[in-house]
Design brief:
The chain has 285 residues and is an alpha/beta fold. The protein has a domain at 4-154 and 186-209 and 256-269: 3-Layer(aba) Sandwich (Rossmann fold). The chain contains 11 helices and 13 strands. It has helices at residues 12-22, 35-42, 53-59, 79-88, 125-143, 163-168, 187-199, 216-226, 244-251, 259-265, 274-284, and strands at residues 4-8, 27-31, 47-49, 65-68, 96-102, 113-114, 148-153, 155-157, 173-176, 184-186, 204-208, 233-236, 255-256. It has a 7-stranded parallel sheet, sandwiched between helices. Helix 8 packs across helix 11. The chain is globular, with a radius of gyration of 19 Å. The protein starts with a strand and ends with a helix.
Amino acid sequence: MTSKIFIFGFGYVADALAKVLQAQSFAIAGTSRNPEKRSYYHDKGYEIVDFAPEAVEKALIGTTHLLISTSQRLQEKDPVLSQFIPLLNTITTLQWIGYFSTTGVYGDYQGEWVTEASDAKGDGERAKNRITAEQDWLEWGKARTIPTHIFRLAGIYGKGRSVIEQLRAGKNQAIYKQDQVFSRIHVKDIVHIVENSIKTPEAGIYNVCDDEPSAAYEVMQYAATLMQLPPPALVPYETANLSDMAQEFYRSNRRVSNAKMKKQWGINLLYPTYREGLKNILAES
């Protein structure tokens, strides 16, 4: 049987994954609400349809691998679970399920390390909705006896979406909050991890992040050095004009362990820290 992946929410990571899987003879399908993007991906040979039952029903035919990569609005439950479970129950060819969650579900650990065994105590509405969706997908997959993987993604960066592009656009400030660190992951490593899980499925929850949680301003300073630019000015968190989402982001402080996913699939990260990742982005720019 021909392998086919259907990706709800065909965006930045999905595009990178599709390129790799298409080269392995996977058929690529999914959803996008943006008609221009649907046209663009059609030219790549992907079957990307609107987020609507009639279009999705047709495009789902023959799906062997299902990835949920949808964004989640503040007051919204998982949109795929809400609208498409009756339809997905009719798909008999499924072999693998993946769900892109976020390390934000852990909430604030005051800089301590967290693992998949740590309590998911995120107190924002987005985090609570994600936690609920994780459990719902795990239960649905278990009921269908399909290995279901919850990928808790750290901050995603890569070509076209990094501090290098920000610096080129003229950004010259970085937020400083004492002892604050974040975990991150290069898009190519996300693809590498998902690809390994497809080859060797093992249901469960996995943190997807690199080896070195670091302060956001340190990452920008390093990028400026690589680009031979002046270091960005540091703006204290307490006086920074941040959006509600950014404030929520900075309220949580944790170090996320990736030991489980590395052990499970014997993975060596392509970009174990932001240094290797930024060097790669600069080299490809």
